[in-house]
Amino acid sequence: MDAPPPPQSPPPVNWDALDALVLDFARSDCLVLPPTSPSSPSSPSSSSTTTATSSSVPSSSSSYRSRLLILRARRALEEGDVDATLALLRSHAPAALLDYRLLFHLHKQRFVELVRRGTETDREAALDCLRTALAPCALDAYPEAYEEFKHILLVLIYDKDDQSSPVANEWSIKKRFELAGLLSSILRARLQAYDPILSMALRYLISIHKVLCSRQGISSPISDLIEQLLFDDRDPPAILQECSLEASPFDEVDVQALAHAVELTRQGAVDSLKFAKGDLYQAFQNELCRMKLDLSLLDKLVHEYCIYRGIVEGGSHVLPGLECNSQSHNLNSIDEQEANIETQIECEITNNQNGDCSTSDITHHDSWSRRLRRVRSSTSGQRRQKRWRGRVDDLGYACEISFGADKHDILSSALDMDEDGMIVKPDLVADSSLSDGRNNQDQKYEVILEMRDLTRKGMTSKVVEEINSIDPDFFSQNPVLLFQLKQVEFLKLVASGDHGAALRVASTHLGPLAASNQALLKPLKETLVTLIQPSEDVLMKAVSLPVLASSLQIAMSRRLGIEEPQLMKIVRTTLHTHSEWFRLQMCKDRFEHFLQIDSLKEVDPSMGSRYMPKALTDECANGSSQITTCSSGKGLHEGDSPQVLSEVSCDENAILKVMEFLALPRADAIQLLMQYNGNAEAVIQQIFS
Fold this sequence. Notes:
By secondary structure, the chain is an all-alpha fold. It has helices spanning about 15-30, 45-55, 60-80, 80-90, 100-115, 120-140, 145-150, 170, 175-190, 195-215, 225-230, 250-260, 265-275, 280-290, 295-310, 325-330, 360-365, 365-380, 395-400, 405-415, 430-455, 460-470, 475, 480-495, 500-515, 520-530, 545-560, 565-585, 595-600, 615-620, 650-660, 665-675, 680-689, and strands at about 30-35, 230-235, 290-295, 385-390, 415, 425.
């Protein structure tokens, strides 16, 4: 029996597009601060400290402030403090209290919490709640509300620890969390307080990844990570006040697209569209944001990625310990967990064919250190990165709406500042050895990022010179990268009209590299063809500098023992399964443009494949994120997806009809229609006969 084909590497990812999504996420949640100006004086005076403190709590956008409001209301409700939740809503979202269904649930929970406290005063307050709030609200909330009102009275006579009582469910702490989730869903939609695109895209991609792996019987290489990041349970859906049983007024295409995108029943999709007043994309956002993410873990992944890509300063510039401040004010914020980006020296260059790739010599050798410092000194100050602030959650918001004191005074007393006005946490101040290690790590990042930026600018001869000065063995381990860099140099010379110098580069570098690697012969020939093309058509149509720059960064990072960020692994793998999933569904994703997934897959629209050897795209893809085969023997490979049979043309209405009546996924509906020559009625009749 023939052996199964080897797993295919996922296609390259547009890391620049991911950079934009990550930066949008960091800005939307105020996780970063602007770069420090090198000319700004540092003063330990109290005035400068106050200014620095004020700038460390940036002004929030409307969406950010609304999300903080939802977070505080949710946390208060989860702790059983319904009064605090109601006070927040009255002050900042009074329109939400016009929803009598929601208001009834809140008063009902308030009544239970007052009885739970058990004091005589609280019991009197509970009875007052019944008379003045709960009973009147029960008359107008919804048809079943008054029966629920009479039922909740039983908590007055049954003990909260009696698990056999008819109101054991009402006593359950789980009720708090269910109501908190419902409140979040309603407020999010009412206030249009949706999460950043990155957060929603990850929910969507991971959920598709899980479904595909489950249905195809394959194992996921990122299962442990995504199980921690995306929880299985969801917040309850937002509910309309009225219960209408009329036929759906929505296009069935929209209903089915929403149902299968976020794993809803058809009726659930119809209800979601009703709540969104028929707006498909608003309903989609409402459903995505019901999925629960571990926000502290996502922050950690984003921070790690930002350092790797040079979006924020490295570990020695991190603002540690901000999460303790929200706790000290008892705001129940989500803690920011600092990313632990320690150097791990190990060989991960799986695509190399030259054997040993030990990094011990280049990591510890004195000459390497001197060269690193020299390159660093020549490039320092050219890139002013942002500073990582971390998630303070509702610190600034709470100071405005809850505390009676001046915000600056509160912050100054709660936070410790260094001489530059930066927030520090005394018990986390690194000792000198850890500081030296971080500085060394930062220097590595800085050099790698400088080489990446020079490559983006097309200064590839300078890149080759500097890398050879830092690590003479680097290009012997990465010959394809050297070919690409020299290819750019060749094309620049051709574009400038210096054909003699271009031929010297080809004969000295490109020719020998192609002679030792047969995969490079074809791109070499096509590169030489540019000698007879108009100079203005040569350079930009040939090589994607951003792709080459990212490939160089990845290779240099591995060489210097820097782990690839886990966010890159998640995105690479889930984008691959996203493509496979919609190939199986035999349709285009309605939501990929809305979530900018298409831009993540668009490595470079201007680049043809003529000068991009497959060896390089494999290096970009990195085999560490391949889908592997589980015990069932099934794996996810490029050729596994079913092909649409050209002789059977399935009408879209027929597909939708089978999906609707049989509650089937699109791919299964198409397969059934193919068996019955595209006749939906025949399929349905056969199933129900």
